[in-house]
Amino acid sequence: MTSIYNQTIKLFGSQPEPGFETRAQQEAVWGRHWGCDNDVGQIRLCLMHRPGDEMNIIDPARRIEEIGSYGDLEQGWYFQSDVIPDWDEFRAQHDSLVQVLRSEGVEVVFLDSVEADGIKSVYTRDSSIAIKGGALVTRLARSIRRGEEAHVSKTLASLGMPILRTLHGTALMEGGSFAWLNSKTAAIARSICVNDEGCDQVEQVLNAQGVELLRIDMTGYDIHIDGALTMIDVDVAIVDPDLLPYSFLRKLGELGIRSIEINENDDPWIVNCLAVSPGRVVMPRGISAKTSTTLEKLNMELIEIDYEKLQLNGGGIHCSTCPLIRDSVD
């Protein structure tokens, strides 16, 4: 019996190669070649959430003067702006983003469910990030968002996407503070929403895949890097230089990345844009003629849409999209 067992092990033993993230293993075991190793390759699959009944919790009678907006300390929700939008217009602008993405060849999927008071769930960028071979489920920092992790985990599982890590313990990390710079280098920004333990856990997974994670610090109370930098082509980023450390701006240059700096005539929200493919960018209206000309000289193609209603809730186009599969650009 022992001899038969030994022979079986020899013939059908352990097979570490090819690796988990290879296309052959991904397609054979998980059905698709999941994940992203960049922020600009053609998006094939993108996770979103159409705002629903959860927005009804926002009550104009619940004003908190200290924040100059609306909220409920006991229930734990707050609205980002002093102006509460018409919710039909709010959803219509989100619908327009979905339509644009689909017209660009993107398969859009939606969260299966959200918290009853999950008014930030529309910003799917934050609850998970796609890395090589699968997803990393984050741990959201603020109580208003705690619980989104469970809903995104269920959705990813229903799609068949591998979850390579779920942040745990005291780790805090939100996806808006993560950026791919190239297939071997990513950046994470510490802030009130990202602590060192969160950085450490993300780094463990990326280092195992041969990716270097650069840590930077946001200025003041800014929370996410995607309000300060977004990659829009293989070697081009749009940046708000006032929100990034000088050492990081220099590092971008060392990596061969050209920084297009916004100016005082630009709406700062234009940084929170989305490359659907290299050099083809979905951007909210508000770009100045100067910046537009600079991008045109680099052969960038801009798709401008109205998105100011969603911005009232504290997030933009980049925040509202979580690419799950992108083409490689190497």
Describe this structure in words.
By secondary structure, the protein is of the alpha/beta class. The protein has a single domain, classed as L-arginine/glycine Amidinotransferase, Chain A. Helices cover 25% and strands 24% of the residues. It contains 8 helices and 18 strands. The strands form 6 sheets. The chain has a 3-stranded mixed beta sheet, with helices on one face. A 3-stranded antiparallel beta sheet has the order 2-3-4, with no helix packed on it. The longest helix is centred in the first third of the chain and has 17 residues. The mean pLDDT is 95.
Q: Sum up the overall morphology in one term.
A: globular
Number of strands: 18
Query: What is the annotated CATH architecture?
Result: 5-stranded Propeller
- CATH topology description: L-arginine/glycine Amidinotransferase, Chain A
Strand order of the largest sheet: 5-1-18
Helix/strand-derived category reads: alpha/beta
CATH class: Alpha Beta
Q: How many domain units?
A: 1
